[in-house]
Structure prediction request, 67 residues.
Amino acid sequence: MAELPIHPQHDPRPEPPEPPLPSDCCDSGCDPCVHDTYAEDLAYYRAQLAAWLKRHPEAAEPSASAR
Prediction:
């Protein structure tokens, strides 16, 4: 059975996480620090975006050489 194409409306592009504000970190060496959590969220976002772009190649930004 062939898979039906996923409509972008039902598969929205992942949204990047909000970076922490400078005032969000207390510089007390918390574990995890808000910056650690952001780095994990950013890695997850990048993986989700890469998978999404494979499903929606038409949405990929043109490469610098194509400009």
Notes: The chain has a mean pLDDT of 86.
